[in-house]
Design a protein that fits this description.
This protein has helices spanning 17-29, 48-55, 66-71, 74-79, 91-99, 105-112, 125-129, 131-142, 168-179, 220-231, 259-269, 313-318, 338-349, 389-404; strands spanning 6-11, 33-38, 59-60, 83-89, 117-121, 146-147, 151-154, 160-164, 195-200, 205-206, 212-213, 235-240, 251-255, 274-277, 284-286, 307-309, 327-334, 353-358, 370-371, 373-377, 380-383, 387-388. With 411 residues, it is of the alpha/beta class. It has two domains: 6-185, Rossmann fold (3-Layer(aba) Sandwich), CATH 3.40.50; 195-287 and 303-410, Rossmann fold (3-Layer(aba) Sandwich). It has an eight-stranded mixed beta sheet, with helices on both faces. The chain has a six-stranded parallel beta sheet with strand order 3-2-1-4-5-6, sandwiched between helices.
Length: 411
């Protein structure tokens, strides 16, 4: 619970600063008070006026402002907070923090504080991958700071890769974790020592050397789950169908094309404690893939494609004897009576949980960034609010951690 907690939010320079405005709202809705510090870089992306209006407080920008210093010095800003959150944490501010600089209000507060600090890094993927940033990040973690993200995917700068700031609700979840004394996404690592297999993306089923049957799965949800499980300390093998996503950091990726290859890769990744089958596996493959490119034969008749059923990876893993993972989670994409179909699927496939979602026309789930899911377990069903796929992944990973460790509080 974060009701009544006092958050000092430091907004540094980066396009992700717009998400910090939403973060202020999400925190205020939950009864927290939010006081904001805006760096000069941050003020290039969001205005002090918007920040002040949303936080319903003054915005602090200047180390040497007589007004701010007399009314609210940097020591007092830190003293009157339960937690400092740096979102976005730019490469530059992280470098200052890692090296103990104190040459503006934000860095001075961060050097002077004895309160817990959560950073949400956000930057261009090359800046994030740069050894200097990685070194600084490791230093900050070693110094005992908490961190969330960054996630992988499309970046506002037009590139693809790691560097995207975590979504506001994920940051709220991390704040709740820290303030409740529970493990946060980097330090708690409640899945340390657990092995997980995650399937993701579509499968391609060859018709001939140049043609194949496929579907519209992007792999975003499965990749996000692999990343979220790794964040909680699991050793993750991600068995991925063709996709345009960056490999999640800290995850072993096995790229495959067909369902048969996906099953073989899953089986060779066993034993595992956790299996999450998020891939959109093709139900059928073409019997007897042509060795040469098929040609029109002049008869005007199209060739008949003879389809045979693919192995069901989820059902196979669920029904393993001896090597069955302790928790097997399937997905159920439905276009009608979502929950009923998902319940039946859970029983039919023999998995423990089903994450069910509506992918009907107009939902924009396939390929999109948002998802509205229902978690179906032996105990019943939960309807989760609409969340970013990254946030669904974080919430699911935390539920998985709770399954293995009842003391871990997923909420
Ligand atoms: O039967 P349906 O395809 O709707 O089931 C979806 C669930 O089953 C997903 O978890 C998907 O990854 C898994 N599945 C599988 N192998 C298949 C078909 C589906 O693992 N051949």
């Amino acid at each position: 619970m974060i009701t009544g907690k006092r958050i000092l939010l430091i907004i540094s320079g980066g396009i992700a600063a717009y998400k910090s405005l939403a973060l202020i709202r999400r925190l205020k809705e939950r009864g927290a008070s939010v006081r904001c510090v805006l760096t000069s870089g941050g003020a290039q992306f969001v205005t002090p006026l918007s920040v002040a209006a949303l936080s319903e407080d003054a915005v602090y920008q200047d180390l040497f402002s007589l007004k701010d210093e007399s009314e609210m010095g940097h020591i007092r800003l830190s003293r009157e907070a339960d937690l400092l959150v740096v979102a976005p944490a730019s490469a530059d501010l992280m470098a200052k923090m890692a090296n103990g600089h104190a040459n503006d209000l934000a860095s001075t507060i961060l050097l002077a504080t004895d309160k817990p600090v959560l950073i949400a890094p956000a930057m261009n993927t090359r800046m994030w991958d740069h050894p200097a940033t990685q070194r600084n990040f490791q230093t900050l973690i070693g110094d005992g700071l908490h961190a969330i993200g960054p996630g992988a995917g499309d970046l506002a700068c037009g590139e693809v890769g790691s560097g995207r700031m975590s979504e506001p609700l994920e940051i709220v979840a991390a704040i709740e974790g820290i303030l409740s004394g529970g493990p946060d996404t980097l330090h708690g690592r409640p899945l340390q020592g657990r092995r997980a297999i995650v399937t993701s993306g579509p499968t391609y089923e060859a018709i001939d050397p140049v043609r194949y049957l496929a579907n519209r799965s992007s792999g975003k949800q499965g990749h996000a789950i692999a990343a979220a499980l790794a964040d909680l300390g699991a050793e993750v093998v991600l068995v991925a169908g063709p996709n345009n996503l960056a490999d999640p950091t800290g995850v072993t990726v096995r790229d495959i094309e067909s369902a048969a290859q996906m099953l073989a890769a899953c089986e060779s990744a066993l034993p595992a404690d956790i299996a999450v089958c998020a891939a959109a596996v093709a139900d059928w493959r073409v019997a007897g893939e042509a060795e040469q490119k098929m040609k029109k034969d002049g008869s005007g008749q199209p060739p008949a494609l003879n389809l045979v059923e693919n192995p069901d990876i989820l059902a196979t893993l669920s029904k393993l004897n001896g090597t069955r993972p302790g928790l097997v989670v399937g997905f159920s994409a439905e276009t009608e009576t979502v929950v009923e179909h998902a319940r039946a699927k859970r029983a039919r496939k023999g998995c423990d949980w089903i994450v069910a979602n509506d992918v009907g026309a107009g939902t924009g789930v396939m390929g999109g960034d948002q998802n509205t899911v229902h978690l179906i377990t032996a105990d019943g069903e939960e309807n989760w609010p609409t969340m970013a796929k990254d946030a669904v992944a974080t919430a699911l990973a935390r539920r998985i951690a709770e399954f293995f460790d009842a003391d871990f509080d997923a909420d």
